[in-house]
Amino acid sequence: xxxxxxxxxxxAGGRLRLEIRSVNHRHLSVQLKVPGQLSDSEGxxxxxxxxxxxxxxVTVSGRxxxxxxxxxxxxxxxxxxxxxxxxxxxxxxxxxxxxxxDLATVARLxxxxxxxxxxxxxxxxxxxxxxxxxxRSCVAAREREGAALCADLTARLDALAGxxxxxxxxxxxxxxxxxxxxxxxxxxxxxxxxxxxxxxSQEIAYLADRLDITEELVRFESHLAAMRxxxxxxxxxxxxxxxxxxxxxxxxxxxxxxANDAAIAATVITMKTELEKLREQxxxxx
Length: 286
Description:
Number of strands: 6
Order of helices and strands: EEEHEEHHEHHHHH
Radius of gyration: 38 Å
Shape: rod-shaped
């Protein structure tokens, strides 16, 4: 599911903002884009994210709203300055140039004075506390999207249940038609010769058993119940729903292969369409 969450607060004397974005992914994939000062906390950040997310491509971006108030570190390379000043004075004498080599000149010489920010790694606990706030905000957004997806999935499950009831209602009439068709075919082929009633009854029983879809419909109904149970729970259900959908697809395919009836075959096609839509939506769930 997609989601966004952000939080900012004081960390290591500065003010840090963390933003978390998540998009659909079969597994949990984490990408960090944070300031260099947070590099030591990356392992802890990745581990903490696992407590908030089970699936999805999660990107954590961080930036300083206010840089940590650490003093600049100043270093002076005295030996380099002495060598450069000596070289400049010699150059002046050789070329008979006037002017003095003063402090301002020395300060401008390359690599003599170096100014660098003393970076210390922020305490991981402060970063993680900020991460938790941003993650909770992102999860809340995902839950809102999940509620909408759940409503859509439930409506599609209701539609599938209705289609299964249509097939269950039509199945007995189909067997009667097949029985009558077989009896007519036997009479036509016998050309007036009396057929063995026991043998005809046996063939009709074989036909009824081969075309019976009661077990498939019962299993399909149990899969629908499992889907509703998973959607109504509090745990991540995406993988479970995906597995149950595969089983539902198998049952529908079997029903289609046994249909031998135009109306039932048309209903099976509609069920497959609904299952495909369900599968696409389930990919968006955690």
